[in-house]
Amino acid sequence: MWAEQTPSHWDNILVPFVAKTIRLVLIFITIIFSLPFFSLSSILTTLIQRLVTLSLIGAITWILFQLVQVIEHGILAPYGVDYEKDLDARKVYTQVHILKKVVLTIIGAIALSVVLMVFDNLRQIGTSILASAGVLGIIVGLAAQKSISTLLAGIQIAITQPMRIGDVVIVENEWGWIEEITLTYVVVKIWDLRRLVLPIGYFLEKPFQNWTRTSAQILGTVYLYVDYRFHVDLLREPLRKIAEASPDWDRQVCGLVVTGASERCVEVRALVSAADSGKAWNLRCEVREGLLRFLQEHHPEALPQVRLALNPETPPDQSSTAMPPIEQPKPVIGRESP
Known about the structure:
Layout: H1 2-5, H2 10-34, H3 42-76, H4 87-118, H5 120-132, H6 134-143, H7 145-160, E1 168-171, E2 174-181, E3 185-190, E4 195-199, H8 202-205, E5 209-210, E6 218-226, H9 233-245, E7 249-261, E8 266-274, H10 277-298
Helix pairs in contact: 2-3, 3-4, 4-7, 9-10
């Protein structure tokens, strides 16, 4: 086929669409021009004309819907199917996805209005309602204010993109991925396969964490608590070996430092890096298990301990704690006891 031999991918998309459109338009043109050749009653002719008009409106609406789908497919085709791993692809996909819904909504509203205008009775009723119901128009406008603001919020998110489809976020203390963005709500896929549905305005009014805003790379931390007598240097080499043996480590960051100390133990933090949050979680678990296994097998005395030390060489100071001696009564000579 000619379209398949051209270097541009738009030919492969537009040629089938144009062919379908031409076939559909030819059917309606044939019906419209063939009506005068039939001797039909005025009522039947009017009925057929109405049906053809409605069918033509539906066909044009379908063509416009398909055109939007074709444009979306043509824009996203260069990025392939694995767009979630590409930051630029996720930006384009989010914008196209939201703007497509806006355009489809506008086309559907216009098509419905044109269909209603075909019928004279409905057109007169609608005209009289719009002319006489000023108060009702105000009420409807106030009721639609929230819907209009939601629509504008969706367009704003498509332009500013505080989050994109496939981004890793933390919202409402839940960790997950942006799975779907519509004009009214956003679906977050939680790590345990639950779905958190939030209104689109939530992401413009409340703070949330986006772990993949500019890059998917992330640092993972593991905290351990060891005894004061343990030498922290003994953990650095096992940490390096555990990270190198893990396929989730990106070979960027691997370190161990002391980050705190209490009256009982020392806080040690292992810091490792990974390409994305999922790999970082797995790497943190591997590092935690590996370091604990190393301490249990080679240095069990390094675990936090509670000590009670007494020094028997220094007697307690009795000058302040000893009770004064009790004086014994002296006997009186020459006097009998009672």
